[in-house]
Amino acid sequence: MLIFIDTEVNVSNQKAQDYGAIREDGAVLHTHSATDFSHFLSCATALCGHNIINHDLKYIQLEHDPIIIDTLPLSPLLFPCKPYHKLVKDEKLQVEELNNPVNDSIKARDLYYDELAAWKQLPAIKQLIYYKLLADTLEFKGFFSWIKNSIPIISTDPVDILIKSEFEGRICSKANVSAVVKRYPVELAYALAIIDATDPSSLTPAWVLRNYPKVNNVMTFICNTPCGECEYCQSKLDAHRGLKEFFGYDTFRLFDGEKMQQDAVEAAIRGESILTIFPTGGGKSLTFQLPALIAGRNIHGLTVVISPLQSLMKDQVDNLTARGISNAVTINGLLDPIERATAIEQVADGTADLLYIAPEMLRSRTIERLLLNRNVVRFVIDEAHCFSVWGQDFRTDYLYIGDFIRKLQEKKLQPKPIAVSCFTATAKQKVVSDICDYFKQKLDINLKIFAANSERKNLHYSVLHAETADKKYFLLRDLILGHNCPSIVYVSRTKRTSELATHLCNDGISALAFNGKMDSSEKVKNQNAFMEGEAQVIVATSAFGMGVDKKDVGLVVHYDISDSLENYVQEAGRAGRDPHMQADCYVLYDDSDLDKHFVLLNQTKLSISEIQQVWKAIKDLTAKREKVSCSPLEIARQAGWNDIEANEIEMRVKGAVTTLEQAGFIIRGNNSPRIFATGIKVRNMDDARKRLTASPLFDDVTREEAARIIRSLISSRATADNRGADAESRVDYLADILGMKKSSVIRNINLMRQEGILADTRDMMAFIDHASVSRNLEEMLQLEHYLLELIGIESNIFNYKQLNTDAQAAGYKRCTVKKIHTLLHFLFIKGYINKEEHTASGTVSLQLQMDTDNTLERHERKVEICRYVVKNLMQSADSNKAVTFSLIDLLNQYNANAQQTMFGQTEKATIMDMEEALLFLSKVELLKIDGGFMVTYNTMQIHRQVDRTRRYGKEQYRMLDEFYRQRIQQIHIVGEFANMMVSDYEAAMKFVSDYFLLDYKDFINRYFKGERRAQIVRNITPAKYEQIFGTLSDKQREIIDDKQSKYIVVAAGPGSGKTRVLVHKLASLLLLEDVKHEQLLMLTFSRAAATEFKKRLIDLVGNAAHFVEIKTFHSYSFDLIGRQGSLEEANSVVQRAAEMIESGEVEESKIAKSVLVIDEAQDMGVDDFRLVKSLIQRNEDMRVIAVGDDDQNIYGFRGSNSAYFSSLIKDYNAMRYEMTENYRSDEAIVDYANRFLTKIPNRLKINQIHSVSKRKGQVCAKADPEQLASNLHHSGQTAVLTQTNKQTLQIAHILKEQGKHVRFIQDTDGFYFINLAEIRYFLKQLRPFEGGIISKEAWDKAKESTEKYYATSECLDLVRRFFADFEVTRSKFYYSDLHEFILESNIEDFIATDENIVFVSTIHKAKGREFDNVHLILSDLTHLDSDKLRTIYVGLTRARHNLYVYNDASFFDNRSSIIISLSMHDVWLDYFKDKKEKVLSLRSGDKLQYKNGYLLSINGNYIASLSKEQREKIKEYENNNYCVKEANVSYIIAWQPKEEEQEVAVCLANLVLEKK
User: Fold this and answer.
1) Are strands 1080-1084 and 1109-1112 parallel, antiparallel or unpaired?
2) Got the DSSP string for 740-783?
3) Tens of pLDDT along 1172-1212?
């Protein structure tokens, strides 16, 4: 009696809880009782179940010892072909009802009888082979015991002899099968079953590979290990036959007469791991594709190709498809959802033998699962130099490849390593050894090296110097016209490709652009036009040419030189692919071209500070638990990265994470994508609003949040530019863009799913070529029908040309071989047909996978769906424009329409039917599906491995640091090559040869000696280095060269080059010390100083300086608290900012800095220093560079104290430097100032200031104030400095009376620069503007209007200097920047010195300036405390050559004339409220009349009224015989009365009083 059983087991206690059984006579048992179940089985002669051996028998008690038959191991043996048995998927039975053991018993019975029937269908010899192999094995002995009497014993030969006889021509006849029989009988049986399968893409089930991992080894041993002697190996494993069969070539490529390519292919066929170094155009792709195709055919093996370039992957797959090879796929972000799903399906079902992926995809669970279920025979790593820090393109994500392969081998239980092939076009010896060492260390693999000489003898290299852009272009044009052949022009920037191509076209040269950022369809179009000779020139970035084989390129011009010799040799090598032609390679070169590469390297490199910030972010994220799942964007924001473009963030964060993983700080697990929705169910935002308003699921807060989210999603879906992976609306990006918490975004998305606003409708975008559809749809559908009728159920061989001829004769006049290739490719990947190409003969073997009737029925269903889809989408889209549609809605609409049309008799189409129709339309190029809409959250699994106190430092960064040092040297080396080419061609070619052949250190020692060796380690050309650092003093250079000290304090004396040192240090940080602009912060105490630093930095480093954050303490603090402010509001803002940093209220992105530079650090007050300390606390690895002069701390009245400057030394152990060389003042002035310094106590500097000047200079220490005017006879800039604002006015007036040209800084108490009428007018002229950016045209127009309107104003010079300062420090004019700039500015910031004008100011307002001649007026020398002494010292040290000190306390007493400057406090402000028009008609400098406390215009209009207090002061002067002699307008300003909307125009004036 045979009984079929199944048990259900309780997962928690691992005990059987439900039993089911059915006897062969039909009796059924379903019970929870183990006793009843045991009793039911007592009559069994045999028990049968699915996985009974390893599952059910563990949980039941048998009273006797029946035969055990397991249907699970039998299934892959007896149903090895696709489609596999319908009742089995993987190792599981397919059932309609879960947890029903009776139902499962019935299914096991049905499966068993099907297996028995399949056994009986086997030829007798195969029955005997399986019997002899498996009769004594645990898995099969029950089955063979049960059917033993029916086994035909037709031979007594050993089983290995029977196998070799039966499988002759299908396995290697020299293979030691007898050894396999003894050790792996089950594995051999499964291997033979697959070999015997009629479907070439049939696979051994994944559960078999998991339980019997040696199956693949056995397959490889008997089918893919060449003996070189037997007929099978000579047919299936011969490299030449494979070359002819798959690619149609007769011979392999030779390198200098050596059969290097053939040797590499044969080594791969033998299963060896190899490293192949072939030059560009050397047949690299074929070298790995051929062994992959052979292994795919022979053993259903999968070769995984890892490449960093998505576009190259697609190109290679497309090229293979064009050859009729359909079993290569790529899975990457460029695919639309249907293409991606199809590619995954091909890998899973065995129709793909080549899989192209990027290194990052190894983190995908989907990829891991696919590879676990396939026989992976080889990993091919393209661009293998990426493993080495000595290579030209080291990539940290490559370092995970070895770990992944090792883990895959462990999970597959494969003791033998999976073979590896590494490919690169160029590699130094050190790179080769690094690659070999990596795989030896990671996988214990020894790579066999195949290295061809990179020298191409049919290429001639030339370098032409081009110092200007015009000369460079003219040289290019002449070269193209002179050669008159297909030409490639390489440029370094994507923007230049189109600019240069357009320029050439305008000059009558047919040129097209190509770069990686172009739309893929445009790239293909331009590439094809060049390949087919429709365009003579392609202007491209380095992205062009990889995988492109155009034989007749006679000219390659590098408009911008490559960034390494490796890249140059590769790119130049795209000329002269035909070895029988001569080709020219030119470089248009200037040494400054290298600076562009250095700048780009600085921008793209991953600095140690960035990795430290990512590590800090991970520590913060894992503060409560060691494991975290988060997106790269979340890590970036936690790290404080805000200025980096979103598309760069993932790459940079993942690079930092991989680096931390390599250092052992973390383990990164697989990516964990989560999809929340694939479609939007509302038509527009109005519809969404109505649904949200009506829904009870939302409250007021969530309703508004949801509205913002759905608005962003609708916008994302509607933007045609957001395609592919970029079109995914990611939860973390939504939270970031909308300023919401991630949890709020997820909550609202889930609520909108409940409400039906979001759903899984699989929204997509398609582009339809209306004209092409109308012309080609029916033709392609009918041609496919014709082919399907022609292909039979039996395999037949067809000749492509004959097939095309027959099709045309049958009425398909526009049929081509290409169209047949396309249709057969589609039919193959969708499982309509089996296909085997015979490229050598131009033929193909074709066979239907189903019978003709079922095949044509499936085809007709697709035809109807295609017609409906095209009609529907064309009606929804404007001509040739994108249309957005929902796959689910389209399916439902089709089914509804089909039911109406066919009266409900048709079978409903499935989602797979709809996807198949869309894939067909895409493959035949009738529509292009451009991405899919998804609301996703893509996270990385990160497990912190070390304590949070562990710091990432230079030792851990050593490998990356070495790579970047190599990159710097490579740029210098390619520049050396270019210069060498100009003078000595043979020497230059020897230079290149030695670069690749010599040990790298030997190469450097040979070609770079002495100072030149030191130069090539700098990230800057020697000329640029000399320009920036060549004129520095030893002390200045010592400070700038200090890259090690975390904290630096520079006590800089007057004239010692403080500003110079700071600017050059900023340049060093940017160019030589790996500090990116967004990581650098400089704080100053005035907007004028910030502007000066920015201007000087621009002069040094160019445009990069525009992006450096140089701000005042107040401006930066306003940024931190999130509002705009002015000087007027600045009193407590620094304190508030520091408090917010300390309490964690400030966005990390605003305070995450790697370097803080402080100017005038002696002027820090308690709040300023608190801000600095809070920044240090938040950035544990931040460097601080503070420069100042405690002797010039003269702002004690506003809270500054040099003690905070000193605290950096005392509290933070800062490295201390003194700058005591005075480059400003002559010897006599420095000596006088030094003697004065002795009066100042508690000084920080130890060393005395000394003059560098060779001039003696002049000091007149007791000058007569009455002789002031006559002393102003020296040439150069002259200043008169006073102690008070009132004295400034008096001196200015006295000098004017004596005929001197004077410019003075007067007090602006009560108003600011932004209040000036001229500035208000200018701002008004700027509006309106869009997007926050002021166009150049709008700026110039507003500026011109202002200068014209205020042509007579004495303030116009100020305004012009304001224009100039803003323009020179901005690359783009953002209105917010302008507003901030104005708010921070003081009027004195724009008062310039001039050789012909005497500058008059207080000492305080002259600080930071210097003059050839200084006249210092000291009227009050009483109570000279430290503050006053330091103020006088500042005044003394402003002088370069001549210093006069006037000391007469009575000088300002009883003067014949007095000048009064009216401030906001000196006028009656309300008086102006109805006089706006009159006041605004005045200009600064206009004369006024004074009458009884009022100011009148020249024409008699009353303009202003003095305040009561000021009237009384005037009255007091009048009582002392003074009268107002004249008045003139000083400023017209805007005043905003409290609680009033309208601003008031106020006139301020200067009054001159004279004694009667």
Assistant:
1) parallel
2) --HHHHHHHHHHHHHHTSEES--EEEEEE-HHHHHHHHHHHHHH
3) 999 999 998 899 999 999 999 999 888 899 999 999 999 99
